[in-house]
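Subject: Interface between my chains keeps coming out wrong

I've been trying for a while to get a sensible model of this assembly. When I model each chain on its own everything looks fine, but I need the whole thing in one frame so I can look at the contacts. Pasting all components below, labels as-is. Any help appreciated, I'm running out of ideas.
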Amino acid sequence: MHASPALLVFHPDQWDPARAEQVRAYSRTVTPVLIPSSDPRAARYGVAGRSAVVVTDSDGEVVWRHISGSGALPKPADVDAALAEIIEAYAAPRTGWSRREFVGTVLAAAFALALEPAMTRAEAAAMATSHAAPGATRPVTLHVNGRDIALSLEPRVTLLDALREYAGLTGSKKGCDHGQCGACTVHVDGRRVLSCLTLAMAAQGKQVTTIEGLDDPMQQAFISHDGFQCGYCTPGQIMSATAVMHEPWGPTDDDVREAMSGNICRCGAYVGIVEAIQQMRRGSGGPQ
Amino acid sequence: MTELGAPLDRVDGHLKVTGGARYAAEYPLPNMTHAVLITSTIAKGRVRRIDSGAVEWMPGVLAVLTPQNAMKLPGFEGSSGNNAGAQGPAARGALRMRVPTLLQDDLVHYNGQPIGVVVADTFEHATAAAHAVRVEYAAEHPVLDFANAPRNPPESVHPLGGPRQTNRGDVDRGLADAAVRLQHTYTTPLENHNPMEVHNTIASWNGNELTLYESTQGIFSVRNSVARAFEMPQDKLRVISYFTGGGFGSKGGAWSHEVLAAMAAKKVGRPVKLMLTRRQMFGPVGGRPRTQQEVTLGAMHDGTLTAIRHTSTSNTSTLEDWVEPDTSQTRMLYACPNVHTVYDLVRLNVGSPTFQRAPGESTGTFALESAMDELAYALHMDPVELRLKNYAEVDPESGHPWSSKELRACYRSAAERFGWSRRNPTPRSMRDGNWLVGWGMATATYPARRAGAGTTARLLADGTIDVRAGSQEIGCGTYTVMTQVAADALGVPVDRVRFELGSTEMPETPASTGSVTVASTGSAVHDAAVALKQRIESIVPGGLASASASDIVAKNGGRPVEVTVHSQPGPEQRQYSMHSFGAVFTEVHVDPELGMVRVPRIVTAHAIGRVLNGKTARSQIQGGVVWGIGMALLEQTEIDPHMGRYVNADLAEYHVPVNADVGTIDVQFVEEHDPYVSAIGAKGAGEIGITGVAASIANAVYHATGKRVRDLPIRIERLL
Amino acid sequence: MRAFEYVAATDIAGALRSARGVDARYLAGGTNLVDLMKLDVERPSLVVDVTHLANADPSLAQITELPGGGLRLGGLAHMSDVAWDARVRERYPFVSQSLLLAASGQLRNMATMGGNILQRTRCPYFRDTATPCNKRDPGSGCSALHGINRTHAILGTSEHCIATHPSDFAVALAALDATVRVRGESGADRTIPFTRFHVLPDAHPERETMLEHGDLITAIDLPALPFARHSLYLKVRDRASYAFALASAAVALDVQGGTIRNARVALGGVGTKPWRSPEAEHALVGRPATPATFAAAANAALAGAQPREQNAFKVELAKRTLVRALTEVAA
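Reply #2:
Try treating it as a single job with all components included. I did that and got this:
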């Protein structure tokens, strides 16, 4: 670590088979180092328990750091954008920072090699910093899972696509894109709604909660009762189920079935889903 | 201590309930672009011209691929079969499955066929441009009428189809000898799989290397097809699929969108994400064909079957011949000396059919088990007794002994749990308030197949056992049961084992189709774990029981201890007949005036060899049963009779079961020891759950109403 | 979706002003509009978001008492809020039922009173720009007439259009003689009786309501109708939930001493508009509340039915649904 600059990726301890693949996209020359964020080094870099990407110079000093609020790893485009900023910053002559100039050079080489060879650095930097739709886009601030996310979106972008394609929150799923399956269910101002039929612009000023922002015993109940198989409808099922806890449904299994019929599960995990919800309802003293 | 069979929580459960499981479209590659398919709006003819010039100026559009401008694929043969890429009759003659449409010609075979691709910087821009494209066609009159189209024997059949015609004994004489004869036609409609995750791919080139992030049941099948299309070495193509949001047979291999995405990525020089719309899930990615099955039964007064004839006609596309093998179970399920089966195809201008959850046995058991129920009534015999009367002690077609068969115990166990002995056999004799109550049963069966598979297992210094096999997780619980298999074989707790799948950089295993995964990959995982244990013990006598992992690794030159095995079925496959069996008992409630049918409870008992995880296996059966409810009462793909347009191509009008359609589903597994079917004695549970269910529901509806419905789905208007 | 301009109105006057003179649509819950925009069936150049109008005027999203015992449902009130409101459940149970039997929990949290009665048909040919449809594209033909028409209408049809009106809530409103309150471009309020709100397709199926360009639904008034406490909405569909009606009935009966003193009947799933049936009501009022009366009412309600090739079963199904609803509400 002390011999050369490093790209450190701090991640949740939880196993994730796709993690290595995501990190693979960060850089093709400077090999990212994966470190669980429970590791003591995470504390040293100020990212204990967080998902983060840290770039250090050859002394191990932090040159750049991106902490991910949502728990997901930063998108490669964000990492590229930040590296581009560093390169710009270090391209100007500075006194006493010869080591950092060296780092800047190394990183610039790494950065250039990570992009399409035909592209100039300026083009690459411009592309990397823009993950907004060009054209008739407007600044849109969404308040998601307790944080503000500033985006630049066309009016026709739905909340679902804003979450998945622009905000890096892929937990909400696209099953039909027409409000017919429930896989895109999120909470807006505490109510379960379909994000695929909500325009992102219309969700401004409201509190949006996605599966990534949920920490609810319902999630463990789904695991215990095997209320899922392929998992694709599961975030929507859980967002619906947690909302049902606060809707005036009757106490029977049939009441729960009806309440949850807006969430289609093609794997047919309905028995486990009802069991999980009923366990939660009984446990909390009955339906709210 | 064994971890096998324990109802362990899924090891990928935490990821799935937190939104952390990553599916194909969810890899945020830099400079990603978005592609949307352009699909035909006629059912037969040619694409004369796609006016791409008019949309290329639209905001964000980077390219429009059409049959006129698309690259010529060097190795196009378009499928996981062999032979060159001719279309039409020549293609039908080749042994092939799944002929994609890759813009290599201008032919249109069905309404909704991919005929182009728009690539843009955002999903919104690509979608708007795809809508705006104007296409000129030379339209021809499509063939859409199943009833009146000519019947033909298929020119070739996929390996699961079985022979086109089989003849055992002398059916005509058997019928002549019979005391009771009946002959009825049963039909099942077109269906579509509709997994919750649509088919989608991200294609990313790095020089001449291609990575596909795919939603698939078969990473190697996709790799091989795509590599062949581009005539590129397989090791230059990586297919990644750590989680697939359902497949049910529609994702067993490549369709069109994988190659189209790769072509688009080549064209624009950037990664391309191509996601099908839900409408595009009807036609371009397979479905279950319509079947029309005629079953003739002859029996003595005591119920002994003297003859069975089962003929079937199903539809295929004009792209390829594909058969729904719905006569398969008829050859092996009952001890009847005289059995004749045959099938024919009609070729229609619709999307190609493909394997859909229990292809053949799901549709075939509907016909056969309905006919058996009708026979039971004709004989005034209990339907279970009729099955037992004709119980096959050996495979009646091949004469081979079963590798294992606990079907009697299944009938007994399910009947008892259901309360079958309280049944009043007279139709319309049971009520619950205003509802008519009906009870019906059927036999379930599905072949237990096994293919070769590879696995690598390693002991790491920190004590982790890392096991990897290039398999898939489509919801069956593969991550979890393989962890258990490895832990059990090594004698370590499950939390010491990490099982990885989903990359073609791992050892090759079969696609997660045909319920083969636990028998195939499970055997390989087992064998690899056993081999690792032996290798460890050869390094340190006593192995993990006597030394720490770090010591063992140190003794191994500081390297993890690693083994790779390839596991293969053996001669036992030729010596034994291998199938799973089960029994399904169903209660329906029918509204006597309004015709609504509800299924408040279903009781099943299956014998599937060794149950690897009681929790996930139960879910597999329940999932199959839910599919059976959909098949019996709800699902039908509707195509406009003139235009050939898919008319209910969305989830509002194609009715898969919702939560309120499902009552209680009681699942039992009968203990069954099978030393032949796989190294771990497991047979697979993914598909047997649907078999027999539609018949049990139709039989229950008959018992409730006195009306015999032989055409699925059983809709309200049939019961008014 | 095509690109469009989006503006969030802060008050009614502003909303009306924004919509004036342009191809605009009001966006409330979006459950129908956004769906149809994705299909390229609706193509407004301007979307006026009216969901914030309740900030300036809270009554737009509320349920308020009317003198005499009726209820005013704000145009922006959500289906779920109205369905679960104690006053609605008590005074107009079939209104609550018609809402709860529709859509899904998520959709009911989004969709509004105004949006619900404006929702457009589910006819697959209307919703698919690749197939001819007189409603979507006047003069192009009706694909359903000789195509797949199992779920299409048997009442109020013409040779130009046989599309079913899909709203359950609207059926109860028709039975109730509700009133739609509208504010128009001029800024003046007016009311439209519900049974005249939707128009028959006749030769112009593209015209569905009495609304004029820029009209904003501000409320739906439920009149005081004491015997509406004895009401029921019965819905028959292909699956147990989350599906549109094959046939449905909204009925209210005032039965005294075994005789029907007053009746309201409307049918759903079978008409090109929510189908109030004065014919059925006439066959009920003054008659004994018996199966024979109910059967006669059902025959009268469906006497003018014009079935097509695949939906003939709806004639019998609608009759039985009505009989069942009357039987249950009289019990």
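Reply #3:
Confirming on my end. The domain at 5-49 of chain C is CATH 3.30.43 (Uridine Diphospho-n-acetylenolpyruvylglucosamine Reductase; domain 2).
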